[in-house]
Amino acid sequence: MKNLLFVFGLLFSICVLAQGRMVLNNNAYVVIDNSAFVVLDNPNPNALTTLGTGGNILSEDETDVIKWEIGITTGVYTIPWTTNSGTKIPLTINKTSTGTGANAEFILSTYETATDMNAPYPSAVTNMNYNTVDHSLFVADRFWHINALSYAAKPNVTLTIAYDPAANEIGGTNTITETNLLAQRFNTGVSHWEAPLLFGTNDAGNDRVINIVVPAADFYEDWILVDRTNPLPVTLTSFEANCNSGEIELSWSTSSEINNDYFVVEKSFDAVNFFELTTVQGNGNSNITNNYVAYDTNPSNGTTYYRLKQVDFNGDETYHQIVSTNCNTNGFDVNEITLNNNTLSFNVSTDLNEKLNVFFYDYNGKLITMQQLHAVEGNNLVTINNLNLSKSIYMLSIVGDVNTFSTKLLAR
Asked: How far apart are CA 287 and CA 184, in angstroms?
C-alpha cells in the first residue's frame, strides 16, 4: 500500500521547519495539487532525501510547486518527481555557483501535457513554433519549470532531466527518435525557443538527458526535451518591404539559424503566383542577430507582394510570411472597393488611357472571373455582379500595360 501525503489548496503549503528535512522512505508519495506549495526553507541538499526503495513527489501542474529556499548554497539537489502512472522521473540540479541573493529560491514543478501538441503551455511560453510552423510533435509531452526566483544574479547549474518513455509522452502522434532527445529552454526575453542552442547529452538507455550545463545567462524557467533534428527556434524576427528612392527595400532579421544555406526573395502581383526576384546567402549556423537586405529595382505600380523562402544545406525549404507594399508614383489608384451581396465594385483612377485585365480569384488561386476594361483618364467605376460567393477570402488583381494592382478581399 502506498504511503500518501496530499498537499492541496490555493494558499495551503507544507513548511519544513528551518534546518529540518523531508525524508521520503520506501516509496512514500507526496501529491501536490490545486496550486499548493511545498516549502523547503533548509538550503542544504539533504533537506529533501529519499531512502530505502525511494520516494515520489507528484506535481503534474505548473502551479503545483516545490519552493526550495536555496539562496547562495551550492550542491546537488534531487527532486524525486513521479508521473501520474507511477514512473519515476527525478530532476537533479547541481548548483555550481552561488548566484546573488541570500533569500532567493528555486520554484520547481513539472507536468505532462494534455495532448501531443504540448497544450496547455506554461504561463511564460507563447508558442511551439519553428518558422511559424508548430513543431510540438517533435517534443516530449511534458514541461519542466525550473525557476531561479529572486536571484539578482542567477547561479550556474548542471541539470539531469529524466522522462517517461511511455507512448503518452514520447509516442502517440509524435515524431521523436528517443536517442535524439536533448534539452531546450524558452527565452522569455525574446519569446521563442532558441536554437541551435540545445543542452545536454542523450542517455536514452536510462531515459534521461544528462550534463545539461546551463550558465547563468541561459538559465530561463521553462524547459522541454526536443528531438535535436527538429529544434524549436523562431529564427525570423522581422520581414519588411519599404519604398526607398524609387526602389523597394526588402529587409529581414534572424535571431538564430540552423544549417541555413540561402534565402530566396520571391515577388508576386496577386499574392498567389510568385516568381524568384533574388537570392541572398545565409549564415549557416548562428545564435546571434543577423540582418539582411535586398532590393527590387524595378517596382511596379500598385500593390506588390513579397515572400521569403529559406533553403537549408540539405535542400529543405521553409516559407515565411507574405509582406506587401504600394509605391505608386504614376497617378494610378484603385479605391472605393466593396464586395457585398455577390457583387464586386471598385473605382480605377488613372492619368492614362490603358487596357486593363481584371482577375478575381478565390483563396486557392482558382479564377472565378476575368474581364477586360478600357480605362480612360480620370475615374472608371467597375461593377461585377452575380459572383455566387461564400464567406471567404478572395483576391482582386488588375494587370495593365503599365500599371498593376492587387488586394485581398473578404466576402461576408
From this structure: 14
CATH of domain 236-326: 2.60.40.10
Residues whose CB is less than 8 angstroms from the CB of residue 169 and which lie 6 or more positions away in sequence, other chains included = 83, 112, 140, 141, 142, 163
- The residue behind cell 485585365 is 357
**Cα(354)–Cα(380) distance, integer angstroms:** 11
Residues in a beta bridge with 331 = none
Distance (Å, rounded) from C-alpha 342 to C-alpha 338? 10
Which segments within 299-352 are labelled E, that is strand? 303-312, 317-326, 332-340, 343-350
Cβ(171)–Cβ(143) below 8 Å: no
What would the pLDDT profile of 91-145 be if each residue is shown by its tens digit?
Answer: 999 999 999 988 899 999 999 998 888 899 999 998 887 655 678 888 999 999 9
Convert the pLDDT of each residue in 297-334 to its tens digit: 877 766 788 888 888 777 777 777 678 887 765 677 78
Indicate the helix (H) or strand (E) that contains 167: helix 167-170
Tell me which residue of 352, 397, 400 sits closest to 377, measured CA to CA: 352
Of 62-66, 81-85, 121-125, 365-369, which range is least confident? Answer: 365-369
Whole-angstrom CA distances from 194 to 24, 220, 232 are 37, 11, 7
Which burial class, exposed, middle or buried, applies to 77 when counting CB atoms under 10 A from its CB (0-12, 13-18, 19+)? buried
The x, y and z cell numbers of residue 141, run together, are: 509531452
Residue with cell 518558422: 131
3-state secondary structure 67-88: EECCCCCCEEEEECEECCCCCE
- CATH architecture classification, 332-411: Sandwich (2.60)
Q: Give yes or no on whether 236-326 and 332-411 have one common fold.
A: yes
Q: Please name the residues in contact with 59: beta carbons below 8 A apart, sequence gap of 6 or more.
A: 32, 65, 66, 81, 108, 109, 110, 111
pTM exceeding the 0.70 threshold for the entire prediction: no
Tell me the C-alpha distance between 325 and 41, whole Å.
Answer: 59
Cis ω before 165 (30° cut-off from 0): no
Domain boundaries, the chain: 4-227, 236-326, 332-411
